[in-house]
Structures are given as structure tokens and as C-alpha cells.
Amino acid sequence: MRDDQGRGRKGLHAGAAQQGEYETVRRLWVETWRTPFWVPSYSSPKDGVAALQDKAAALGANGLINVDCYGDRGLFSFGSQSFTCYGKAIKVR
Questions:
Q1: Dist. CA 76–CA 41, nearest whole Å
Q2: pTM summary value
Q3: How far is Cα 6 from Cα 74, in angstroms, rounded to an integer?
């Protein structure tokens, strides 16, 4: 994966990888029994997407699709805005 600074990470935009051109490595932050109780939160969507890119790369993925971040003012946010992000790590063929 390639990011804006050329660090080898890339988030794919809609339509960049058609179904059948990639295999799913893992749906990040939604496939664990821990998800109903805790998911990581970030100070900005940019930080959240960077964390997803790092996790995907660690799993051997070379792309992300269906990435979304949403504001979360949960019980433990103490009034500050935090973001929860998720996405699908893929390996483009």
C-alpha cells in the first residue's frame, strides 16, 4: 500500500478494484468478539485511516476499501471528539 508520502500504502477509491480483482484479507475492527465492547478511537479521521493502513499492511494486505470514520462522543470521550474507523483490508491481484 502507498500513501501520499510514498510510504508504501494506498487507499483505493470507489471503483478502483472491482470484485474478483482482489481477495479480502480481513474486515478491520468488526470481526472480533471484542468489537461490541471496545474498538480503537482516534483524534482525527486521518489518524484512524493511517492506523487501518498499518494494520492492513501488517496482515499482508496491499489496499483498503469501504473505509469510513465517524465521530464518537461515547461514555469515555470526556467531551472531546474522537473517531472510530473501519474498513476492509484487501490484496489486489
A1: 11
A2: 0.72
A3: 34
H-helix or E-strand spanning residue 89: strand 82-92
User: Could you tell me if residue 92 is left (phi over 0), alpha (psi between -120 and 50 degrees) or otherwise beta?
Assistant: beta
Distance CA 84, CA 23 (A): 24
Instruction: Convert the pLDDT of each residue in 30-39 to its tens digit.
Output: 777 776 777 7
Asked whether residue 2 carries a pLDDT value surpassing 70, the answer given is no
Provide DSSP, 27-82.
Answer: EETTSSTTTTT----BSSHHHHHHHHHHHHHHTT--EEEEEEEEEE--TTSTTS-E
